[in-house]
Amino acid sequence: MSLNGKTAIITGSTSGIGLGIARELARAGADVVLNSFTDKDEDHALAREIGEEFGVSARYIKADMSKAAECRALIEQAGACDILVNNAGIQHVSPIDEFPTEKWDAIIAINLTSAFHTTAAALPLMRNKGWGRVVNIASAHGLTASPYKSAYVAAKHGVVGLSKTTALETAGQGITCNAICPGYVLTPLVEAQIPDTMKKYDMGREEVIEKVMLERQPSREFATVEQLGSTTVFLCSDAAAQITGTTISVDGGWTAM
Ligand code: NAD
Asked: Among residues 33, 118, 137, 229, which one has the fewest Cβ atoms lying within 10 Å of its Cβ?
């Protein structure tokens, strides 16, 4: 599979799944644009390292995915966008009646609305070339719910719906749009949930991982960022040209239950 000559923009790609996807797209030959909301030397260094390791052009562009104008500016600044991976996401866990409004707003903005803005900005570029791939990183929580994750579950269900609509509006134009629905992946986002869960259930780290987190995941194994990267590369391949408007679960069987 060669993605030589394609430019891929991956939102929220300085850590976790986004970084894993950026690395696998670069391994497949794509030029990559990394993104987050910071502008640190290490952000640019990360892009340089990927570029050197895989012999592709790799850049870092700062853009805050909670801000509409910055979402659209990311695509404009990149100048090309053959592959768009909407990955940036945050989490907050709380009962609905105690859920802070600012957290709700931030989750909906970063996890859902940003994908609307980047997609709107990227589709004209893809249509010009008659080729494009939009890959939205949803979640098992885009297909099913858990208590205390109202904003996240609502946003991820929204991402699945947006993916279907994008697919219908681009069908027959050489462009596809799909949502990948990961189960638990041991990234900083998930690490951050472990201490609170340990306190809540009075459990140790390993017990929380086994009995609370992976309890939903029949394989009892985390999915890896490399697996999500390879799934993204597959969706960019010619073999996947007729796969559009659907979800691919990478969740160890979670949503089969
Ligand atoms: P992570 O915290 O490791 O990475 C999130 C990335 O998004 C980081 O690079 C961060 O800098 C960036 N980001 C956060 N806020 C941003 C903003 N305002 N603007 C731009 N970038 C921003 O998280 P992760 O686990 O790799 O999650 C990535 C995506 O995968 C998220 O959409 C998440 O919901 C989804 N997901 C994760 C899991 C999991 O188990 N880790 C499971 C299902 C879905």
From this structure: 229
